[in-house]
């Protein structure tokens, strides 16, 4: 079933006309209501009338996370605060928090796009959704919450953490859908095993996972351990929160709600558009947001876009599962390294736990990459040569993939810190 068939199955030309109309309206609003954008456009010699349709999108300036920080907290808002009914914000762990605002209409739009995502995932009115994303300033919890209520599903707003209680409520309340980060889903599976809870005896059938990059191998691991269908949902607070895009049951790319968010992919170095089907940095322009309508926001996420119609019938542009982030990319001895490459190697081997940590250091001017990998505790009671053989095997596989030498350290279960939100995969100790 499709929540909004008129939009989700719209023809390409009709969608372009709708996007063009909304883009023109948005550009005019930010030009006259947001001094930051008026100044940026004037520096480029642009006036609102120069933007006729989405073919003119490339003329517009980019927006970055730093721009939101520089305009902290409300200077990018396009409406007076009297019209803003809610704000969310980032944690600010890497700098000044980024603050986003919503009018009442923005909240309705948010619920609508999340409702589309849930329907695409196979979630319906009779489902019981356990939302284990954090509530509060983070957009994950409340974003899923109102979309779930819009389709009429039953919401368990448990938020993140309290793992044993999560599992207990899954049993007692009959949760059919789990929404959280993929790394926390694996943590829950691990905790179930320790508690003697068999996932097959639960009612869970679908997982809605996002808020961090994850690989196809991790999807298989989750589906095998929890006996559910694992669906990828994508969103970011600066654009609206969860609901920007989501997979359907075909699991063949994430359908972007492009009547609200125009997607582009650009080369992260030249900022020039890359052809459809090629990997580039994902950029969004929010064309219906009232409070915070960002132009060409650089997400730093790396993916490719496809416009071919999906087998499910939707015509919305699809984005591939994110390959990683341009700002998560490690450059080690001149080689680009993404944590997702190492995750794929480890999970494909199937001889380790799905928990790993990359530690990068610089010794005598040489970059060193050490990969910590958890293995079953029984390995440490076996003969030492078995540990050495597995270490050598992992080292060979990773070095074959990356093309650089690495150190591998096998560690006991629970050595690597578990988190209730986004997993920490990298510690970079280099003083650069």
TrEMBL record:
<dbReference type="Pfam" id="PF14535">
    <property type="entry name" value="AMP-binding_C_2"/>
</dbReference>
<dbReference type="InterPro" id="IPR051414">
    <property type="entry name" value="Adenylate-forming_Reductase"/>
</dbReference>
<dbReference type="InterPro" id="IPR011880">
    <property type="entry name" value="PA_CoA_ligase"/>
</dbReference>
<protein>
    <recommendedName>
        <fullName>Phenylacetate-coenzyme A ligase</fullName>
        <ecNumber>6.2.1.30</ecNumber>
    </recommendedName>
</protein>
<dbReference type="InterPro" id="IPR028154">
    <property type="entry name" value="AMP-dep_Lig_C"/>
</dbReference>
<dbReference type="GO" id="GO:0016874">
    <property type="term" value="F:ligase activity"/>
</dbReference>
<dbReference type="InterPro" id="IPR045851">
    <property type="entry name" value="AMP-bd_C_sf"/>
</dbReference>
<feature type="domain" description="AMP-dependent synthetase/ligase">
    <location>
        <begin position="81"/>
        <end position="284"/>
    </location>
</feature>
<comment type="function">
    <text>Catalyzes the activation of phenylacetic acid (PA) to phenylacetyl-CoA (PA-CoA).</text>
</comment>
<dbReference type="Pfam" id="PF00501">
    <property type="entry name" value="AMP-binding"/>
</dbReference>
<feature type="domain" description="AMP-dependent ligase C-terminal">
    <location>
        <begin position="334"/>
        <end position="430"/>
    </location>
</feature>
<keyword id="KW-0436">Ligase</keyword>
<dbReference type="InterPro" id="IPR000873">
    <property type="entry name" value="AMP-dep_synth/lig_dom"/>
</dbReference>
<comment type="similarity">
    <text>Belongs to the phenylacetyl-CoA ligase family.</text>
</comment>
<keyword id="KW-0547">Nucleotide-binding</keyword>
<dbReference type="InterPro" id="IPR042099">
    <property type="entry name" value="ANL_N_sf"/>
</dbReference>
<comment type="pathway">
    <text>Aromatic compound metabolism; phenylacetate degradation.</text>
</comment>
